[in-house]
Amino acid sequence: MIRFENVGVRYGSGDEILKDLTFAIEPGSFQFLTGPSGAGKTSLLRLLFLSLQPTRGQISIFDQDASMLTVRQLPSIRRRIGIVFQDFRLLDHLTLYENVALPLRVRGKEETGYRKDVVDLLKWVGLSDRIDAHPSVLSGGEQQRAAIARALIDQPEMLLADEPTGNLDPTLARRLLRLFIELNRNGTSVVIATHDLNLMDQYDARRLVLNEGRLQIYE
Fold first, then answer.
1. What's the CA gap between 73 and 145, in Å, rounded?
2. Is residue 65, in this structure, part of any structural domain at all?
3. Are 34 and 194 in contact (CB under 8 A)?
4. Domain total in the chain
5. What is the DSSP letter of 110?
6. Angle at alpha carbon of residue 8, lines to 212 and 35, rounded to 5°
7. Is the pLDDT of residue 166 over 80?
8. Is the Cα dihedral 75, 77, 79, 84 positive or negative?
């Protein structure tokens, strides 16, 4: 699905923050991405989402050389990837329902075809009573769950999540992990960036460990 070959990243003229990354994300795989703060986890997620270009090396995604993709091609590639950002990026002028449904609206789908799916997903993440609320009145944990629902609503081929359980209590964190596992069983590749060792210990999955810009893989 995605392959990195000797990828390095630096910002400006500083030292490389990611060094010689060579690995692959296979279709239908599940992995945790972990490492100390400042190790480069968010930068690696941005590379996977094609919102950051490597300084050197090659990235292939869905059998295409990422460096050869045009501006017009990028949106269709990114629609195949769901991503949950740490800052949520919900739109304040839209209701919770409208935020979660937005990826489907952008694709031109009719509401009659997706309303039940949106409502069911919001119920699953515990937000059925907040469906008409705006992000400004939601707690941090509620906003996080809404962002996760939005990333999942279009059944992406790959899901990237940056600390998706950081603002959640342990019970809800386990519930969301079960959702990620179920998505994976249905064919979605999953990459979860997390510091939560307890979360990782709940599921026997591949671990990508970043330390000082270098990657170690534990199968």
1. 29
2. no
3. yes
4. 1
5. -
6. 30
7. no
8. negative
Residue 84 counted as domain residue? no
In which residue are the tokens 């400006």 written? 12
- Predicted confidence band of residue 109 (pLDDT cuts 50, 70, 90): confident
- What is the span of the domain harbouring residue 129? 89-154
- pTM of the predicted model as reported, rounded to 2 decimal places: 0.86
Q: Write the DSSP assignment of 137-201 as a string of letters.
A: GS-HHHHHHHHHHHHHTT--SEEEEESTTTTS-HHHHHHHHHHHHHHHHTT-EEEEE---HHHHH
* pLDDT score recorded for residue 125: 83
Cα distances from 93 to residues 68, 135, 148, in angstroms, run 36, 8, 19
81 in a structural domain? no
- 152 compared with 47, residue with greater pLDDT: 47
Distances (CA, A) of 158 to 48, 106, 121, 165: 10, 19, 18, 18
Closest to 188 (Cα-Cα) out of 23, 26, 4: 26
Q: Is residue 140 part of a domain?
A: yes
